[in-house]
Amino acid sequence: xxxxxxxxxxxxxxxxxxxxxxxxxxxxxxxxxxxxxxxxxxxxxxxxxxxxxxxxxxxxxxxxxxxxxxxxxxxxxxxxxxxxxxxxxxxxxxxxxxxxxxxxxxxxxxxxxxxxxxxxxxxxxxxxxxxxxxxxxxxxxxxxxxxxxxxxxxxxxxxxxxxxxxxxxxxxxxxxxxxxxxxxxxxxxxxxxxxxxxxxxxxxxxxxxxxxxxxxxxxxxxxxxxxxxxxxxxxxxxxxxxxxxxxxxxxxxxxxxxxxxxxxxxxxxxxxxxxxxxxxxxxxxxxxxxxxxxxxxxxxxxxxxxxxxxxxxxxxxxxxxxxxxxxxxxxxxxxxxxxxxxxxxxxxxxxxxxxxxxxxxxxxxxxxxxxxxxxxxxxxxxxxxxxxxxxxxxxxxxxxxxxxxxxxxxxxxxxxxxxxxxxxxxxxxxxxxxxxxxxxxxxxxxxxxxxxxxxxxxxxxxxxxxxxxxxxxxxxxxxxxxxxxxxxxxxxxxxxxxxxxxxxxxxxxxxxxxxxxxxxxxxxxxxxxxxxxxxxxxxxxxxxxxxxxxxxxxxxxxxxxxxxxxxxxxxxxxxxxxxxxxxxxxxxxxxxxxxxxxxxxxxxxxxxxxxxxxxxxxxxxxxxxxxxxxxxxxxxxxxxxxxxxxxxxxxxxxxxxxx
Amino acid sequence: xxxxxxxxxxxxxxxxxxxxxxxxxxxxxxxxxxxxxxxxxxxxxxxxxxxxxxxxxxxxxxxxxxxxxxxxxxxxxxxxxxxxxxxxxxxxxxxxxxxxxxxxxxxxxxxxxxxxxxxxxxxxxxxxxxxxxxxxxxx
Amino acid sequence: xxxxxxxxxxxxxxxxxxxxxxxxxxxxxxxxxxxxxxxxxxxxxxxxxxxxxxxxxxxxxxxxxxxxxxxxxxxxxxxxxxxxxxxxxxxxxxxxxxxxxxxxxxxxxxxxxxxxxxxxxxxxxxxxxxxxxxxxxxxxxxxxxxxxxxxxxxxxxxxxxxxxxxxxxxxxxxxxxxxxxxxxxxxxxxxxxxxxxxxxxxxxxxxxxxxxxxxxxxxxxxxxxxxxxxxxxxxxxxxxxxxxxxxxxxxxxxxxxxxxxxxxxxxxxxxxxxxxxxxxxxxxxxxxxxxxxxxxxxxxxxxxxxxxxxxxxxxxxxxxxxxxxxxxxxxxxxxxxxxxxxxxxxxxxxxxxxxxxxxxxxxxxxxxxxxx
Lengths: 659, 139, 372
Known about the structure:
The complex is a heterotrimer. Chain A is mainly alpha-helical. Chain A has helices at residues 2-27, 36-59, 98-121, 128-147, 151-169, 176-207, 214-218, 221-227, 231-247, 255-258, 264-273, 278-285, 287-291, 294-315, 321-341, 348-379, 397-411, 417-433, 439-468, 484-504, 510-516, 519-525, 536-559, 563-570, 572-579, 584-627, 636-657; strands spanning 64-66, 77-82, 87-91, 94-96. Chain A starts with a helix and ends with a helix. Chain B is an all-alpha fold. In chain B, helix 1 (4-24) runs antiparallel to helix 2 (28-53) and helix 2 (28-53) runs antiparallel to helix 3. Chain B is elongated, with a radius of gyration of 26 Å. Chain C is mainly alpha-helical. The chains are: A mainly alpha, B mainly alpha, C mainly alpha. Chains in contact: A-B, A-C, B-C. At the B-C interface, helix 1, helix 2 and helix 3 of B face helix 2, helix 3, helix 4, helix 5 and helix 6 of C.
């Protein structure tokens, strides 16, 4: 329908307008403190449009499209390149099917509440307007990414969110660690983006079509595999590379913990709820391609599971609350990758739904966890090291309850949202374990996932107990306050963290029904439907894992304080390995950064030699001139003497020697 | 017979003596006089050639030389007066400011020998006052 | 000239070196120097130059009144010039310059330029020196001053000047050294006037084969004859350059006089000495002698029969055989030459004088001090 199509382009356009207005307000003398107003407004409107689109989608199977028609003249033309033998055209076509609609809901809703939280959090900081402008720009890019109907537009949004992430992580750019972290984030994701763009172009080449529209490429997936048995999996792996970069999986996850240098709402929005999930969205969108290559799917799942385990291991010992949450994010996205990697052996509808459901719930509870830690940081005067404070439940009550809600959800305690989504992922993995190919591998991954769930529960509640229980200690200058602009989003998102899961899925199946009516998923599943029965033994097992984790945390951090230090002393090697992030950063520096620096140093040496050589030659006239400077001493008689000597010499030569 | 080369030799000697004076002396007046001496040598050459070629072109040119020398003397002396007013001295070595930056000023390391002692001016007793007379012993 | 340059003559260099030493010694310096040594060496140098002029260029300079006057005036000029450049007192330098001008005017008189004499004395020794003295008076310095008691690089300046002088004098000698020509002339005229030719000149008698004249090579010349022929040739080369070129002559060797002498020498070389014809030998020797003499005289201005006097007189005056002379009515002749041949230069000189006058007054006029 045309009116909803119009709504579609409003969804990215409104935050873009908000960004421009915020920038203009920031440049105007009197309006600097009101720069947040256009952003809040446009974020709210964008959310409203997303809800409207979702409502429209709920009623039918057709996706809502904008400017999409088979007639090329009706489309909004972006560019086309014609080289004689090949032609590539890209159009500005937006399409929202149910998958995109779900993503939109999550992005715009959480984005709006985080913007509201930021108004309180960023009050009084210089560059207030810059922050809001970039956050709004981020929302525009993310929605564009989700709504894109072809790979090139997706890539445009992809790059846009990468840029906004860089700008926001380096928000306090005068702090060297912040600007270094921003650079690291950008460069590491850039590695992934290179893979993505090469993969995209390979897919276009193999498809032999004139554009990179999803429909065109996905419809010939099987054909491509048959024609290019080696290059097609390679292209899929390259697309995976892009997803790995953006979603912070092994081996490109190292940027995410450092990206905590940015303001906490930024961490909540970009590095928990939305940007890092773009990789999962990409994999879900490219499911038709991955489904036909089981080997690549196994790689996806393995990467996911390994990352989950690794990140959880590191998170066990971190002292910085935000770092714990960052590694937790990496770990949870690993779960989502695991889920997507099960599509194929398991029913694709189930696998993709599991991943997207976990994405949805994770957005809520991770956002609320980050925002609560932001509130703690705000109250503790920018101190976030858990060793510096404790027992905060007495002074920050609302934050305490919302953090607890998020922690319960993250740990996977039964009946909270995280439990249901994690459970669905475990179910998909188990189903993939029964498949014909790679079944045993998937079972191993299942075991890893279960262990990771235990560790997740442990570190989550370790953080909870250390922050909110025990003696009340606050660092110097702490000023506990909870303004309503900050508590309101916390409460809203906390409620979402608690109830979003149970309401959406296990009993009502609203979520999966909504998602699986997407024609995209229908095509992928090729007729298979997911069965909705509840796997009680599995639920029991995962609950047990979660509760055991919570119990260990309770024992170590609440009932017996000091017990944790004793364990750390008893097992120093794993403790220090975990505390030092498995030295991955140092390994990367050694393997990649230092050789590059060496090369740069050699180039600098060569350049210095060439430059000095050129300068030496250039200095020759200068020194030659300086050699003769003594002759210009300003005395007339000296000049006349020189002339006479020369004349006498010349004449003498002629008289004596010339014929 | 005295012929051209003799006069040319004398002219050359005068010219070179004037050249040495121009290069060696530091007094502006003497420098200029040496330049005029050079012109005299040249005039002698011209007149000698005029005599030994039998036409008057050499003499005419000498006349022009004299005219130009007169102009030159006038203007040069006016300039010397201005320069004297600036530095209170006729030393040409004082004017070195057009040297290259970075080249040191040329100064004289040795001091001048002291001039002749000034004779003290005679002191007369003031007018109208009888000078003190020494008592003389008249034997 | 196709011969190698002559080696430097010590008759030139010795007086020049001595003169240089004298001048350097006499230039003002901060060290006390006694005048006597300088004067002594200077006088020696002067004597050396006089000797060079007397003997170095020609075999014989006749002691005429002209020579006495020439050496007198020249000596005075040089002495006063040295006095001028070495005196510490600028006023005395100016007076010495006045004496130089008077001596030079004496030389002008010798060179038949009475008007120039008068003009130079009036303008130089009269106006210019007086102006100098006025300026010296206006810019007096009391006590010892750098300007008067020091010299700027005396050694190097003297060296430069006297090296230049040596160059001039050596060049002069190279061009004007006619001693060899004088000797050749004497030789040739002696041969022409001798009663009997020295038999050493003549080649041994050979049969005069009338049919074979010019065909078979003649008997070789005797050594003396060969030397004589070479000497004549060298003298001709030396003196050729002095021959003026007429308007139609493109090459020096085409000048009639040079051709005559050349032919005479060739005749002597080829047939004169070998065929023992005394009459021919003597007549040709006379030709050579006369020709060389006249060519040498051209250096001094002795004219040819068809010489023309190019000037602004408006008519062409052939001069026959007498040495060229400048017209006695010097002033009117100078005037005529000025206004007929050099009118533009006269006007320009007048303008220059006017501008110089204006300029001098403008520069040296008293100026009001600018308010500080």
